[in-house]
Fold this protein.
Amino acid sequence: MTAVSTRFADLGPRLITALVLGPIALGCLYLGGFAMSLMVCVLATLLAREWRAVTAHAGANIQGQDGTYMMAAALGVLLGRDGVPGIGIAALILIIAVAVSIDLMHGRRRAALWGAPGILLIGTGCIAFQWLRETDPYGPAAAFWIVLVVVATDVGGYFAGRLIGGPKLWPKVSPKKTWAGLGGAVLLAVLAGGLFSRWTTGTFFLEVATVSAAAAVLAQLGDMGESAVKRHFGVKDSGSIFPGHGGAMDRFDGLIAATLVVALITLWRGQTVFIWS
């Protein structure tokens, strides 16, 4: 096997996974409403389950308590529908508090310490993504744009990192990531995000491209943050549900991070990232 084929050994499974799941996800984004909420709810549940599995105390009997954290993420999404994310986040915090109390009563301090902030970030990110999709104007465009930027970040980082290589970005945390990969990720995200804005909403290329760059960097940081957590707990992949990618956390950590920063920018400015006048 040549060096090039070895570097791209996981490309085939990645493409197959994208071709199978991509149309489903895009269809739910386009339809919005219950279809969108159901998709985000499933994603939040998968992410919560994997986070719990990665960070729970080794050997602890947590099977009966996983559902509480998963319920927190799922109910947060469902109750945060129809433009009322505050209710969803309040429910998320309340159920997380119950789950943490159960962990503490059973002596699982480490699981509680890691479980609460992780599920809070996951749930809030999923609620925020749903809220951005429902926000007028340009809600559907904003959701598609975030997904496009994160995918472009992943693709740009993957190919630039594998083809160019070079110095590692943070070898102790993520030994495969390189500075070249980060550059490729940001460059492709800027082009994809800016051109999407120009061709769909006809809005400001420079401003949206700048936010796309910030989202790309945050997506990479989210990916490295998850890698740091997995390395801390001695876990290679968060799961195996997505061939070529690993688990849901391995695939959607960047999306959660990018969504949170875009939601904060939207709240701070009081309007969508597609309006800068």
